[in-house]
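for the record, two folds in this file. i put them one after another cuz i was lazy. first one right below, seq on top, structure tokens after. the second one comes after a little note so u can tell where it starts
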Amino acid sequence: MTNNSLNTRRIAADIAKAYREKAYFPSAAVSIFNNTETLCRFTLGEAREDSLFDLASLTKIAVAALVLQSVNAGLCTLQSAVPDVLPAIRQHARLAGRLHKVTILQLLTHTAGLPAWYPFYTQPDFITALSEALKQPSPTGMTYSDIGFILLGKILEALHNKPLDALVQSRLAVPLGLKHLGYKPDRTRHILPSGFGNPSEEAMCANLGLPYEGFRPHTPIIGQVHDGNAWYAFHGVAGHAGIFSDLDGVKGLARHFLTTEDPLEIQAQQEQVSGRGLGFELGELYPRGCGHTGFTGTSIYLSRDLKVGCVILTNRCFYESGEMKLINPFRREMNAFAAEHFGSRQS
């Protein structure tokens, strides 16, 4: 590393340290990279370079990648309707009627008119929970929905006749060399705690008048997915959350999209409707590019224009007080730093 490179890395780490000191997160791991090499990398707090983090909604990018693979393989199209690719729905007339015009494209872009969230674990089974969830008012336009990606996870399992965790391993992690990315993490590895139980979900369930007796105690969550639906309803494996990874695993997934020549995967990174690509988000958080965020304090940013990417992994929910800050200011500053100091250097 040149002195200039060391100085730039030091500045990036100092940005992160300032946010940590203001209690935005207790631990973090950051990697800035281009098409072929890592340009800047550091950890803070209890994080190590090989630590596993709960990726939360970054899971959606892995699931989107599998959906795009399935489209390319001819197993479905972006215009396929949910009942056509999910046989379990066809067996229930009301559900099939409600979802008969909802397409894979709409699920990927969060424009399917689905509610943002529902506690599936308060119902005895998936079909009952989905039916209850869809009794909520149907939003219009773009509404970010976990339910849409829960459905995409189920669709993938039906298309491939395999569990979602096995699909992530066989069709994504192994081919891309993402050694430590997947569901149900190895408990012998160093895993960062993600929170203290699910007090916010307890409050949301109470507001909905939905009792649930199975909430975890307010003690550190380590190696179990933080998200309530993913853990309580789907045993750690769901389309919207559940994947854990170290820094290299997320960087490898992001770099795949950064360097892909596949037309559909390139299209996925471009706006389709209302600031959404096919799984990806666009906007001021992602300079000349796209990305995604996760509730636990994770994010991916990549710009094919600038040939640069940035992965941020934190455990922002791990404060015993239950107080947590939105870390978009940190994401914004770090992504902008990556674009300005590293993207401009690319040919």
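(here's the note) second protein begins now
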Amino acid sequence: MKLILDKNISKYYLQTLCLLFFPGAKFSETEVVTPDTPVVEVTLKNEDDGAVCTATVTIGDKSVSRTHKEMYDHLPKNKTENMAANKAFFSAAEAFFGYTPPWGILTGVRPTKIVLDYLNEGMTKDQTVKELRKRYLLYPKKAILATDIARNESKIIKRYPLDTCSIYISIPFCPTRCSYCSFVSFTTKKLLALIPAYLEALKLELSLIAKQIKETGFKLKTIYIGGGTPTTLNENQLEDLLSYIDKLFDTSTLDEFTLEAGRPDTITEKKLQSAVNHNVTRISINPQSLNNYVLQEIDRCHTAEMFFKAFETARRVGVPCINTDLIIGLPADDIESYSDTLEKIIDLAPENITAHTFCVKRSADILKGGRDIFARENFEVSKCVDYTQIMTKKSGYIPYYMYRQKNAKANLENVGYCKKGTEGLYNILMMEEIHSIFAAGAGAVTKFVGERNVKIERIFNPKYPYEYLEQDREKAFEETRKIMDGFFVKG
């Protein structure tokens, strides 16, 4: 599609909003316009009391224009101009398609960050909901959801000052690759053969992190082992890694220790028993769907029956908290199939249920062959999201964290639900950027957090395992130490 924007209007933000109405669109300033080319033009005029933008959406011989004026009363001039442009485009596209995205013009991964700011300013729930609707054009139910989650998060956040920290450990390997996956995870025999050397490098990095945490006086509160699928490790490898972590850190005093078991086809009783023996308090077993046909369609190499067996095993060995991930809007799934999955999961009564809206990155295998994953199925997916909120609330779960992704179906959200007192702590601390996170392994990102919402420093590890193995860990660690020392000294 083609964007024609006034020079003062943010191109990035308008492109993000365009994706709400043109899923999967590619942008080009030089594109030759054909009858099928979507064209969006936004013009700006500044008046004494506000910015006025007119947006026009055109495809072929159909064209719709809308104008919006944003007053200079609460934002700097440049932000007021962009807000006017965003609302003008939103109104024009809404009229063009006859469809209103429920999150309005609010984009970005962390919508509850804005809400937390409002609450910290002293706004009540009702005032916050009203402000979200006015400023960002949210549906009432989305404004209420974001506010409820932020209020729940705020109770947790107070317990974690800036001298606390978490550790993320990356195991970027999977037994096979799901067709919708875009994570850096490795499945071929050649790459899986890197695991022994990878674990040795990982252990070295963890020992350096342990030393750094001790020297700086951080208080370690949570550890999260993610992937990939960490239980791709065989029983001896997982035991060795968990034993090593136990030697470096007093895991018995952690507030939370999570292991993503993820794929039911990688789970054995011995692996789960090893996790419990080493103080793991939370695991994820992720069916995504309990419809075997849907699982086949997405190349998920397990069955619903395998999930039930893995879940029963986790209960039997005494895992304190179990999370199950579900994906709303999978190919071949529908409201009947999804609701059946959700109801069966609720019957199992896991402590956490995370409901993701289906989102596919352009590197995913499922896009090969020209399959149109970005087609709108807003009504069906929205019904599934609404049903999830209704059924989890009815069953005693509360929404405790949320994030959003670009190109998610119907521009909808991912929400974690929990039984009272079983919130996934790392999820909140990471998503809301509450304290520093030391990250180990390929693709992992260390994040130093100073003044909240103001000062953050990120350090990226090599993306691929073979690059990670080639890196001089001692030298890389010294670079990290220098960055960290400078960050906190200046902070």
